[in-house]
């Protein structure tokens, strides 16, 4: 698929950051097993303070909740992006210099951005500098 970008940046840095967040994480059950093992194998002459265990448990619980919230926010952002992309179908778009313009007939969302398919089969990356309107650009109206 031939995609024309109106700028040199395509969001690969965002894509790399999104991929790095997919690393494996320690589950709550595994954390509790480690905590129990730590309690069973501690030095009986120097037992750990119970407040340390509670603090570790509270800390892990907070991190786990943050991970869940981030996951839900990512899903929400994706949903909003898809709704916005869907609203572009039937609209007219043109890049910053007007060299690519047309009516949007389809939209595809990728991890590094959104691509609109125009009536003439060309594709345009939807990014900064794109003009969106309900009416055709002046160059197309005269043609």
UniProtKB/TrEMBL annotation:
Q: Name one GO biological process term.
A: bacterial-type flagellum organization
Tell me which UniProt keywords the record has, alphabetically.
Bacterial flagellum biogenesis, Cell projection, Cilium, Flagellum
Q: Which domain of life is it from?
A: Bacteria
What is known about what this protein does?
Required for flagellar hook formation. May act as a scaffolding protein.
Entry's family note: Belongs to the FlgD family.
What is the protein named? Basal-body rod modification protein FlgD
Q: Which organism is it from?
A: Hyphomicrobium nitrativorans NL23
